[in-house]
Specification:
single chain, mainly alpha, 78% helix, 0% strand, UTP20 protein, UTP20_C, SSU_processome_comp_20
Length: 139
């Protein structure tokens, strides 16, 4: 998709690409700012190359305006999600408690995996679920 976006922007040219610049920059910005553990470095490099290509194509001033608008929009979305999550904890404490239990369980499992990788002879005790209650949602 990134290659397609680059090809389309080159094909359209400087004047016709300007209205679509924020739309094109949105996925590129998202890829550049992502911090996933399993992120593909080739995608990051490709998005950086396409951003450089767009800078040369439309000029630094137009690119900067579009990029800053995309950046601002992403920050607003992030803040909105954070605010909604905080409101949900107050409005639905049972859902928040469930999420907290799940997060804690994942943290404990991660800690056990880390200890096992550092000391291969050590085997951490794993939670064994025999009951159907363990498979069901927490009530």
């Amino acid at each position: 998709i990134f290659k397609f976006l680059g090809a389309i922007s080159v094909d359209l040219g400087q004047d016709r690409i300007k209205p679509y610049l924020p739309t094109i920059l949105t996925p590129l910005y998202r890829e550049l700012n992502s911090n996933y553990a399993e992120q593909d470095p080739t995608l990051k490099n490709l998005s950086q190359e396409i951003i450089e290509l767009l800078k040369k194509l439309v000029g630094l001033e137009a690119f900067s305006l579009a990029f800053s608008s995309v950046q601002k929009q992403a920050n607003q979305k992030r803040a909105m999600r954070k605010k909604q999550r905080a409101l949900q904890t107050v409005a639905n404490p049972d859902i928040a408690a469930r999420r907290k239990l799940k997060r804690h369980k994942n943290k404990v499992e991660t800690r056990k995996r880390k200890i096992e990788s550092l000391r291969p002879m050590y085997k951490a005790k794993r939670h064994r679920s025999h009951a159907l209650k363990d498979l069901a949602m927490v009530e």
